[in-house]
Design a protein that fits this description.
752 residues; alpha+beta; eight-stranded mixed beta sheet; 16 helices; 27% helix; globular
Length: 752
Amino acid sequence: VVVVVVVVVVGDARSSETRAMPAHRRRCAALAAVVVCVLTRVAVAARADADFPVRFLDVRGRSSRVIDAATHNALARIDASRIARAPTLGTTRAFVVTPSRTRVDAGDVVDVRVSTTSTNASTNATALSTHWLAAYSPAGADVTATAPVKYAVLVDVDASYVASGAASVRFRLTSHRAETYDFVLFASSTVADDDGVDAPDVEHAAVIARSDAVAIDGALSPMWPRVTLPPGWAGASVRVAWQSGRNASHGATLSYRVIDDDVGGDVVRVRAMTSTYDARDLCGGVAAGFGYRHPGFVHAADVVAPPGAVVEYYISDDVDAARTRYEMTMPVAEDPDASMTIAMFADMGRGSDDDSFTWDSYGRPALNVSGALSADARDGKINAAFLFGDLSYAVGFASVWDEWASQIQNWTSRVPFLTNMGNHELDAPPDAWLGAPDRVPDVFGGDDSGGECGVPATTLFPSPRQGIDADWFAVTLGSIRVVSIDTEVDFTSASPQGRWLARELASIDRTRAPWVVVGGHRPGVIDSTDGPDHRPAPPAGKLNPSDLSVMELLQEHVWPLLVQYNVTLAFWGHNHVYQRSCAWSVVEPGAADGCVAYSSKRDDDVAVYVEPGAPVNIVVGTGGARHTYNGHGHTFTEKSFYKFGYVRLTALNRTHMYGEFQEAGSGYGDVLDKFLITQRDYGGASNATATLIAQLREEVSEWKAVTYVMAIFTCATLGVFAFLVYTRWRDAHVDNRHRFHILQEMDDVAQL
């Protein structure tokens, strides 16, 4: 017991020495720790690589302008009224569309060949100069009533198409819970879009050829697991959600076990909860019309395991047995000394690694951002991810949610994924909300969600939110209290959200969660020229959605709470830019801004905020959506650039927090910004010390019985030894008669 106590005390003292050691020694120690961590994860990472290869869009040799332009879909506004049939072209059979395969697994790639069958093909190409190929699921879908799931402009895929009338297009066939696909060739004249780029004239699009059907195996199977946290989460569990084409009667099941050094524990099987929605739950518009398709069924079940445990899991139902192995790490438990890293970003969108765009497509660089996040999750560089608004940019086209779920599953299946809603998930015109009288409408009244009104986002991607009309929550991950707010609904001081935020911030125990990070979609501090004069008048009773108008409201109603309760960082999106600003307090009358502290740059290019006294502000709307070039270089902005990527935010300990911007639009790029925030020690018992004490007590308890036995044995041994010493002394000082008498008595005793 004494040895154990000495080891604990010396170890704690050595920990104190480590914190005080010179910087170069700390770096060496950190490097050694990293090497050990990497070596221990090599086998698991190698196995994961085989299961989920990371795919990147090759942008080598392309300018940033070209990469940025790839985020925009010129055909975004096509609807049913703008697609016409062209019988004369369709019956000439001038063009043939031929898939390379007639049956594939869901998610496979198919080459689709467009070719000519007659000499008058060039006449058709001249009459309707732009041809584009669209993928439909299911096969035979009415093109005037249902949006395609993907498309490709043929001349963009193969520049020789106009001359040759032949091209081949690669399509990845994601499951949309229909067991067939087919491909339709359209033609139209060209017009310049808003950016001056030639695009199909959707007013005069015409069908000229259609392929045979391609069968899709596994279209109804369980797929796309994502790990999140249940409402009221307090640690030791996570919730896994996934989709399938089968309802609750098919017994959706989650099977999992804790693994340790490849030695597995008992398998636990949990029957999932199942939910869904249909067109009646939406707010009309594209979401309930041209873009609608049934989302299938969302299943969810909880995993209960110790914090930090590695868990392997499978999803299945009565039809499909568990085949694909997934792996995740349980989130770090609440601990003021825990090191924890969260990926922070907004405004993602959907990219493609084939020759096509999704419909509606917005944010092709998101594919590379997702690939970088997958690599980070696989390598243990992030423990969780928080995407604060504008998730898939489906804006009413349900197939995009499927494409997006497929895109992100490599990392959302590994680490907890938190979301809140932005304007492209929730906002709808006032009359659109009339069909949902029980819902709480957004405060801006734009048509940014295409009629979704938050239903797909909250159903498909559950989070710890209070509810669909209360999209706010707070969870503690390690030493970080993450507070999520909804900037699309009323956040004024007297609103339900405003009152909740005040209670939440006031209740945080900084001795247990020393870091507080707030995330919302529209920014509370933004360097932008987008003011109320740049926007049309909002609908009656609605707020002006300009950047500066919303910032003013957040400064009035939210920012005083962030300052009062010493919030560490405020993260925002909406503007597709990276901006890191000063530590911003309440703006005093006559002041130009709210800056109370700026960072200082170290030799290693890390910007350091030393006990800044107010929240540091970061806009990171760089998940893949096209950049918004409207900043104007205000002095409060310390760092700003237009790159795609995310922030890795790490709580190093209770007094130091580090962040870095990982560029990911070009693949897995460089770290473009680094910052460090220090704060005072809020005190409180160290969980690490408490754990050691608990372990010591447990060991003492376990050894207590042994100690009693050892004490008795020791006492008996000492007694015998003392007796022998005494008898030898006595033998040397008494006569033989006396000695014989004693021996005789001993013999008598022996006889008895």
